Amino acid sequence: MKHIYLNNAATTWPKPPAVADAVYRFMTQDGANVSRGSASERDLKSLGLLFAAREQAAELFGGYENAAPQYVTFTQNVTHSLNIVLKGCLKKGMRVLTTSVEHNSVIRPLRELEANGVRVEIMPCSQKGFLSPQTLDEALKERADLVVMTHCSNVCGSLQPIEEAALICGRHGVPFVVDCAQTAGIIDINVSKLGISALCFTGHKGLMGPQGTGGIVWQPDFADRCSPLAVGGTGSLSHEETQPGIMPDKFEAGTPNLPGLAGLSAAMEYIKDKTPAAIAETERKLGERLEEGLLRINGLHITGALRGEGPRLPVYSFNIEGKDNGILARSLSDIYGIESRPGLHCSPLAHRTLGTFPQGALRLSPGCFNTEEEIDLTVEAVKELQKSR
Ligand SMILES: Cc1ncc(COP(=O)(O)O)c(C=O)c1O
């Protein structure tokens, strides 16, 4: 049976071969800890690897001049990044705004903070999954301390107007945090040009790196105002019993995921070479082909915006009348070897907004290594399942 991977919104697969090679090299040859050795050649190589990865991330996301690359923090994933940022800056009595299509990696930390006295307000998005800039502008007429939003919905692929949102936040003097889980490596984002306070990314989706990697690209003043989530050994200022305030050490207590970061560094090199624009174009074409095919299937309803109804990435969720999306996913996998993702996608609020709560939807998300043939085979498979009893 042919195997077709269409769950790239969960994690991209396959990864470029250079990523696995870099992890293997680190595990079998390099392998020294960072800033925690005798400054041997191998120690310095690890330090060099980490600094090179910071430089790459700063370059990829347009890190603030004079601040990059030390204002790049590496984390385990974007969930970890968002927890660092949200819990590091929001205190009792503060007001935070977010949208109604967020992933639980934003909503759950906010609900926890709410229980501790932070005012959380959810700005409503349209049923197609878009936030209007006017809604944000209106909400900011009352003083807020932070705005956090996803760049792209992991349910319906809708892209939020982060350029306008950054301008509006800038005008109101409110820090702006973006969850770039679905867009990092696919859409060019320049934090310093836009004035983003913290860009949170995960390494294993569009960046094509290993799981267990992620990060934050900070605006320096904002980072300086946030407190760290975890404190401990940094390999620096070891005579002090309190966490160093210097970057990047402030937010990076404990040994980093060096094998993962070796892989992420190779992945960022690959993306720089291919360019995010070329990757996005390949995925856009595959997505449009998928959308066209799905729209021809009786009783199939795509969630969110269709082509021409608003900016989106090729993340397609749908339901078929009379069919359970979990059973459909299972049949796609068992009968046709097609990997998808059913259910609520860790985004119950988004599904409520899009009208697919509590049943959720079946999600297909092509990546740049899929082919047109795979898309056509998938459409045929969904068509057969729709007809089956
Ligand atoms: C929009 C969005 N935010 C956050 C996450 C969480 O990503 P991670 O599990 O890598 O922390 C995801 C993953 O699906 C996502 O799509």
Strand order of the main beta sheet, please? Answer: 2-8-7-6-5-3-4
The counted number of beta strands is 12
Given as residue ranges, the uncertain stretches (5+ residues, pLDDT < 50) are none
The appropriate CATH architecture of the largest domain is 3-Layer(aba) Sandwich
Based on CA inertia axes, which overall geometry fits?
globular
- Report the portion of residues in β strands: 5-15%
Largest sheet: 7 strands, mixed
Number of domains: 2
List bound small molecules: pyridoxal-5'-phosphate
Give me the strand/helix succession.
EHHEHEHEHEHEHEEHHHEEHEHEH
SSE class:
alpha/beta
Which whole number gives the mean pLDDT?
97
What is the third-level CATH name, the topology of the largest domain? Answer: Aspartate Aminotransferase, domain 2
| Secondary structure: helix percent | 40-55%
End-to-end Cα distance, whole Å, is 23 Å
Write the SSE topology:
Blueprint: E1 4-5, H1 17-28, H2 41-60, E2 72-75, H3 78-89, E3 95-99, H4 104-115, E4 119-123, H5 133-139, E5 146-150, H6 162-172, E6 176-179, H7 191-194, E7 198-202, E8 214-218, H8 220-225, H9 258-274, H10 276-295, E9 300-302, E10 316-320, H11 325-336, E11 338-339, H12 348-354, E12 362-364, H13 372-387
Parallel strand pairs: 1-11, 3-4, 3-5, 5-6, 6-7
Antiparallel strand pairs: 2-8, 7-8, 9-10, 10-12
The chain binds pyridoxal-5'-phosphate.
